[in-house]
């Protein structure tokens, strides 16, 4: 994943696309199929590629796939070994004879049959959920400015950027940021200045920082500014 350049600096935006002043006409190349509209980039409008959609990154699911493959391999190997042993003139293993007898004699409404069916159904639903959902919830997709390039920003990196920007505001003693897909919760302590002034300056700085992250879906900022508690 790539992070936007300058994300950890004190600048208010990391956008590098040309900005068109209000009342002027954009240059012709800015409306070409391969270019991005600067107004859409500033306001978070539709992306010129894929209808503005920048989907989440899909996880490889290596651990669940490896576990399922290993279990299937062990089960198939055990059955194959027993079948080969029977074909070679040996008697079937005890566990396979017991399993065949239980499946033939135990009624369908038996408690253990229902429990086994429930466990199998739960595992199947879990595997389907893993197969149909993207995963990688901690990677936030960034706005696409090129059809062949995708970038993502880790939540911790985005939270660090917002925290650094919050610490640059006069009057902020400490800040804590919790980044989610839809919302960024910021809790700041102010040791001087009026809380309303600090809150206003901090809100503006955080809004600029969120836009500067270049995320496809900028999260809403939930801000809370308080005084530090008294010691002792």
Count of discrete alpha- or pi-helical segments spanning 4 or more residues: 6
Proportion of residues in β-strands: 5-15%
**SSE sequence, one letter per element:** HHHHEEHEEHE
Q: What overall geometry do the principal axes of the alpha carbons give?
A: elongated
Mean pLDDT: 77
Question: Which percent range fits the helix content?
Answer: 40-55%
Helix and strand content put the structural class at alpha+beta
Largest sheet, in brief, is: 3 strands, mixed
Query: How large, in whole angstroms, is the Cα Rg?
Result: 29 Å
Strand order of the largest sheet: 3-4-5
Say how many strands there are.
Answer: 5
- The N- to C-terminal Cα distance equals 46 Å
Poorly predicted residue ranges:
1-52
């Amino acid at each position: 994943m790539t992070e936007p350049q300058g994300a950890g600096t004190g600048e208010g935006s990391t956008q590098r696309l040309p900005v068109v002043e209000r009342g002027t006409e954009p240059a012709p190349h800015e409306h070409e199929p391969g270019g991005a509209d600067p107004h859409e980039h500033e306001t978070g409008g539709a992306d010129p590629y894929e209808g503005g959609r920048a989907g989440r990154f899909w996880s490889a699911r290596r651990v669940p796939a490896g576990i399922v493959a290993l279990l299937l391999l062990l089960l198939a190997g055990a059955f194959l070994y027993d079948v080969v042993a029977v074909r070679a003139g040996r008697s079937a293993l005890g566990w396979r004879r017991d399993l065949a007898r239980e499946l033939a004699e135990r009624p369908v409404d038996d408690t253990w049959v229902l429990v086994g069916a429930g466990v199998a159904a739960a595992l199947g639903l879990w595997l389907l959920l893993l197969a149909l959902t993207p995963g990688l919830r901690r990677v936030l997709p960034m706005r696409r400015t090129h059809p062949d390039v995708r970038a993502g920003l880790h939540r911790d990196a985005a939270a660090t950027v917002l925290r650094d920007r919050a610490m640059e505001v006069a009057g902020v003693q400490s800040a804590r940021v919790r980044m989610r897909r839809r919302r960024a919760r910021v809790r700041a302590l102010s040791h001087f200045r009026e809380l309303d002034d600090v809150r206003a300056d901090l809100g503006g700085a955080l809004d600029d920082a969120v836009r500067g992250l270049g995320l496809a879906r900028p999260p809403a900022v939930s801000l809370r500014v308080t005084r530090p508690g008294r010691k002792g």
